[in-house]
Write a structure and sequence with these properties.
It is built from 16 helices and 14 strands. The protein has 514 residues and is α/β, with parallel strands linked by helices. The chain has 4 domains: 272 residues, Aldolase class I (TIM Barrel); 30 residues, no CATH class; 61 residues; 120 residues, 2-Layer Sandwich (Double Stranded RNA Binding Domain), CATH 3.30.160. Helix 6 packs across helix 7 and helix 13 packs across helix 14. The longest helix has 23 residues. It binds acetyl coenzyme *A, 3-methyl-2-oxobutanoic acid and magnesium ion. The site of acetyl coenzyme *A has 15 residues, from strand 4 and helix 4. Magnesium ion (MG) binds next to loops. Homodimer. InterPro entries: 2-IPM_HCS-like, 2-isopropylmalate_synth_dimer, AIPM/Hcit_synth_CS, Aldolase_TIM, LeuA/HCS_post-cat, LeuA_allosteric_dom_sf, LeuA_bact_synth, PYR_CT. Its EC number is 2.3.3.13. GO terms for molecular function: 2-isopropylmalate synthase activity; acetyl-CoA C-acetyltransferase activity; manganese ion binding.
Length: 514
């Protein structure tokens, strides 16, 4: 491999899923994994197989279908974790076991309650065991950036000797600053005798907002794998954002002459997919994928951009897949234009899904003056998440305002094909709507998040709603998009309930809907 090629290791499905509330079901993980493969990610960390049966099954399913990326699973330094991980990645064309153990004094003493020499022995044993199960083994020194350098060098040397091909030095708690972290990478390159037999990797957390800066500094010092996530999702403040790392390398190739295999035009689409699935919206001013990242509001900037976009744009919107296609969609558009538009927007849907989306598009075009690309993306994503729902939204009428006390909602749903109807009241229109759903489908799940955002501008914009429900420690996210905010809210709640039903049936197959 070219010595300046940087391997992109995506951990959205593992570390990203560790963001509280960001749990994803198997179908959702599969969709993200395929999108990651399609954009050219080298390694997909698909999950932590020992963590739960659901995680195991998801990693195995991803290993079965992904062909062009390495599929990796995480494992602690224990036989049970490593063997379970090997089983999950077995169907992969190229599978990797990623095993880790903490090496910092704090973690060894208080968390693992192990002596350093015991940890060192575990490094060798765990990597050696993993190597009997696959050729591709990565070893991580958890809390590596707070580890004593001498001890870290000994651990890294032992891991390579035992057969690790990738050595990852995480900044687990996001404590490092760039020159210090780069210094640590340089130290390992200079001091570990067998370091040339492995690729050095970095995994940075964003507790001080330095995850991307630290990752880039480490690459300049000799690291050749970056672990990152879409939208910077991840434990606590998140991981290094893949879109930022990749676009920094592409845009500043003059200072950072390193290449990745990422097709950057896929960035906007996958950012949106991950945000829709997890319910974690992207802040408007977020680098690369925020709504405002390529928007120009002030007159002097607009004037400059009109004269030459480079005055205020260091990358083109097209380079991250923010494409405004020339097809203007409206109520007179037909299926051919709609299909072409979907292709422009990066969708490759089966005919049935295209037809469903087309019907909803026509309905939207009847109600909304301008149908923007964002509207179509929201509508298609909304249709896709509904998949094989058992509970289906049918209709909603809400009475609210100063004269109607209390606000009331009249709702129709089908449950397993049977039409159910109810009228309920609440403290407000949303509360009344959700109470109506609870009356039709009784459940004890708690509402953890209710979030509304407008897809585009204007009072006729579609509302995109996320609802997060929690039941017995399990969380699910539901999404809904409609021009009517209350209908979008009902759709989002129903979508979350459907996911909960699936989860329940997996853990207690006899549980039926009330
Ligand atoms: C930095 C990171 O992101 S690491 C990945 C973090 N991700 C997760 O933890 C998500 C998935 N985790 C889980 O589902 C659970 O924690 C499990 C299934 C892995 C373990 O569950 P439990 O057996 O109930 O253990 P619990 O979570 O309470 O504690 C972790 C145990 O693993 C030990 N441990 C932690 N890391 C390692 C390691 N790398 N190697 C060996 N043992 C480890 C801890 O010392 C502790 O052991 P103890 O129970 O003897 O004190
Ligand atoms: C498991 C390791 C790689 C990790 O996520 C961390 O240290 O942050
Ligand atoms: Mg991490």
């Amino acid at each position: 491999m070219d010595r300046n090629r940087v391997i992109i290791f995506d951990t959205t499905l593992r570390d990203g899923e560790q963001s509280p509330g960001a749990s994803m079901n198997q179908d959702e993980k599969l969709r993200i994994a395929l999108a990651l493969e399609d954009m050219g990610v080298d390694v997909i960390e698909a999950g932590f197989p020992i963590a739960s049966n659901g995680d195991f099954v998801a990693v195995e399913a991803i290993a079965r279908v992904v062909k062009n990326s390495v599929v990796c699973g995480l494992a602690r330094a224990t036989r049970g974790d490593i063997e379970r991980c090997a089983e999950a990645i077995r169907p992969a064309a190229r599978g990797r076991i990623h095993t880790f153990i903490s090496t910092s004094p704090l973690h060894m003493k208080y968390k693992l309650q192990m002596e350093p020499e015991t940890v060192l022995a575990r490094v060798s044993d765990s990597v050696a065991l993993a190597r009997t199960l696959t050729d591709d083994v990565e070893w991580s020194a958890e809390d590596g950036s707070r580890t004593e350098p001498d001890f870290l060098c000994r651990c890294v040397e032992a891991a390579i000797k035992a057969g690790a091909k990738t050595i990852n030095i995480p900044d687990t708690v996001g404590y490092s600053v760039p020159d210090e972290y780069a210094g640590l990478i340089a130290l390992l390159i200079n001091r570990v005798p067998n370091i040339d037999q492995a690729i050095l990797s970095v995994h940075c957390h964003n507790d001080l907002g330095l995850a991307v800066a630290n990752s880039l500094a480490a690459v300049a010092a000799g690291a050749r794998q970056i672990e990152c996530t879409i939208n910077g999702l991840g434990e606590r403040a998140g991981n290094a954002a893949m879109e930022e790392v990749v676009m920094a390398l592409r845009t500043r190739a003059d200072r950072l002459p390193y290449q990745t295999g990422i097709r950057t035009e896929a960035i906007t689409r996958i950012s949106r997919l991950v945000s829709t699935i997890t319910g974690f919206s992207v802040q408007p001013n977020k680098a690369i994928v925020g709504k405002n990242a390529f928007a120009h509001e002030s007159g002097i900037h607009q004037d400059g951009v009109l004269k030459n976009a480079q005055t205020y744009e260091i990358m083109t919107p097209d380079s991250v897949g923010l494409v405004r296609s020339s097809l203007v969609m409206g109520k007179h558009s037909g299926r051919a234009a709609f299909r072409a538009k979907l292709r422009d927007l990066g969708y490759d849907l089966p005919d049935g899904a295209v037809e469903d989306a087309f019907v909803r598009f026509k309905d939207l075009a009847d109600r909304k003056k301008d149908v923007f690309d964002e509207d179509i993306v929201a509508l298609v994503d909304d249709a896709v998440v509904r998949g094989n729902d058992t509970i289906k939204f049918v209709s909603l009428e809400v009475l609210c305002g100063t004269r109607h006390r209390p606000p009331s909602a009249e709702l129709e749903l089908t449950v397993d094909g049977e039409l159910r109807h109810v009228r309920a009241t609440g403290d407000g229109p949303v509360d009344a709507t959700f109470n109506a759903i609870k009356a039709l489908v009784p459940h004890d799940a708690r509402l953890q998040l209710y979030q509304v955002s407008a897809v585009t501008q204007g009072t006729d914009a579609q509302a995109e709603v996320t609802v997060r429900l929690e039941e017995d420690g399990k969380t699910v996210n539901g999404q809904g998009a409609e021009t009517d905010t209350l209908v979008a809210s009902a759709r989002a709640y129903v979508n979350a309930l459907n996911k909960l039903v699936v989860k329940r049936q997996k853990t207690a197959p006899d549980t039926l809907l009330a």
